[in-house]
Design brief:
Largest sheet: 7 strands, parallel
Strand order of the largest sheet: 3-2-1-4-5-6-7
Structural class: alpha/beta
Oligomer: single chain
Number of helices: 9
Strand content: 5-15%
């Protein structure tokens, strides 16, 4: 089997050096190589990957790819990918962030396997909380356009998914939650003809010593077990602002005494 992996998904997107979907692509990359290195299938699988030649890419990933004899193919844009598939005769093509390929048509012999992380653009395309996260004129314009166009905006986002379902004759979809799976099935009748699998994200192992944790707590002037740790991102969809408001309400009612 010849497998082509989308490393473009693991490269920076726009102004952000990292994203949740990009981190997922990195984890899948390492999990795939680990699985093949400890499995007899390694001898039956030829590994290839595409990456954007104009964007930075993690050196550790390149070194690991070299160790696994993965052949890397630099591309100028996504339109080059079908040609790569034809050239190497890829049987399967995997992407952790597939929407960038929605306007392509992959060769008939290649199965397209991709992950859909969620349908937030359709389920909740905007929210009043979004106003608290504007950081540029572009983000303000994007929000105003989505609100003004209303159902036309949602229709365009839905069309994006419909195009994705037509990229290849053979497809398999991976979702990271049962919610995403059933959202797909309820919103897109065509998705019922595509095998959908639910796999949770591979765990990310980090080794931190007790000294590391202690130094962080000391630097932030915190007492052990006297704080709440919130892991989120500075985007309205992650609900960090809502959580701050909840803490304020709890403090106001005298139900929370800890420092935040």
């Amino acid at each position: 089997m010849i497998l082509l992996y989308d490393l473009i998904a693991a490269q920076p997107e726009g102004s952000s050096p990292v994203s949740g979907g990009g981190e997922y692509a990195v984890r899948i990359f390492y999990a795939l190589l680990e699985q093949l290195s400890s499995n007899t299938e390694k001898n039956k699988t030829a590994l290839h990957a595409v990456y954007d030649r104009d964007k930075p890419i993690d050196k550790a990933m390149l070194e690991r790819a070299k160790e696994q004899s993965m052949v890397l193919h630099p591309v100028q844009n996504t339109k080059d990918v079908p040609g790569i598939i034809e050239k190497i005769g890829a049987d399967k093509f995997f992407s952790a962030l597939p929407m960038r390929f929605r306007n392509l048509h992959l060769p008939d012999h290649c199965e397209f396997i991709y992950t859909i992380h969620g349908l937030r653009p359709l389920e909740l395309p905007w929210d009043k909380m979004e106003w608290h996260y504007f950081y540029s004129i572009k983000s303000v314009v994007r929000h105003c356009v989505s609100r003004l166009l209303g159902k036309y905006y949602i229709r365009a986002r839905k069309r994006d998914f419909e195009l994705l379902f037509s990229v290849a004759n053979k497809q398999q979809i991976i979702t990271v939650s049962k919610h995403s799976r059933y959202s797909l099935l309820s919103m897109f009748p065509k998705a019922q003809d595509i095998p959908i699998h639910t796999f949770f994200s591979p765990p990310l192992e980090r080794n931190y010593s007790d000294e590391t944790g202690a130094s962080i707590i000391e630097r932030l002037n915190l007492e052990p077990r006297s704080y709440y740790l919130v892991i989120s991102a500075n985007r309205w969809g992650k609900n960090s602002y809502r959580l701050i408001q909840v803490f304020k309400q709890l403090i106001k009612r005298g139900l929370l005494k800890r420092k935040i």
